[in-house]
Amino acid sequence: QVQLVESGGGLVQPGGSLRLSCAASGRTFSSYSMGWFRQDPGKEREFVAVITWSLGRTAYADSVKGRFTISRDNAKNTVYLQMSSLKPEDTSLYYCAASSRDNLVSRLSAYDYWGQGTQVTVSS
User: Fold this and answer.
1) Which H, E and C letters describe the chain, residue by residue?
2) What does the pLDDT look like over 68-123, one tens digit per residue?
3) How far apart are CA 92 and CA 83, in angstroms?
4) Is 27 a residue whose pLDDT tops 80?
5) Burial class of residue 62 in the structure, from the number of CB atoms within 10 Å of its CB (0-12 exposed, 13-18 middle, 19+ buried)
6) Which residues lie closer than 8 Å to 41 by C-beta, 6 or more apart?
7) pLDDT at 29 over 80
8) Other C-beta atoms within 10 Å of 76: how many?
9) Summary mean pLDDT of the chain
10) pLDDT bracket for residue 26 (50, 70, 90)
11) Are 6 and 95 in contact (CB under 8 A)?
12) In terms of Cα–Cα distance, which of 113, 114, 118 is closest to 90?
């Protein structure tokens, strides 16, 4: 079992920045690829970013590419999502997730564990 707890969400103005954190506990964090997803009410959860466990390769959704950066600190069992140049359309509930697959997975079904989510609101 892996427990995931997100933090760092909040209210930010358009063009601002925010860093989300996801702390993991339980089984070996370094053996899991970690992803970030987001979901709006009434919509499907969508992929945002992923980082693999072995080589730290990353992939991003086109909508966030160049603005968001995913990283991980295996010593702290934590994955981060640095979000910059935020737009109102980035407003969402953000989830982190853990996958035992060592590749750049973007589909929800590839993830074994999920956090409870942290709300990000981009508004002036």
Assistant:
1) CEEEEEECCEEECCCCCEEEEEEEEECCHHHCEEEEEEECCCCCCEEEEEECCCCCCEEECCCCCCCEEEEEECCCCEEEEEECCCCHHHCEEEEEEEECCCCCCCCHHHCCEECCCEEEEECC
2) 999 999 889 999 999 999 999 999 999 999 999 888 899 999 999 999 999 999 99
3) 13
4) no
5) exposed
6) none
7) no
8) 12
9) 94
10) confident
11) yes
12) 118
For the CA atoms of 116, 117, 119, 120, the dihedral, rounded to the nearest 10 degrees, stands at 170
Q: Please give the Cα distance from 72 to 37 (Å, whole number).
A: 16
Answer for the pair 15, 86: CB distance below 8 angstroms, yes or no. Answer: yes
CA nearest neighbour of 26 among 105, 106, 96, 113: 113
Sign of CA dihedral 94, 100, 106, 108: negative
In this prediction, what percent of the chain has a pLDDT beyond 90?
A: 83
Strand partners, 21: 7, 80
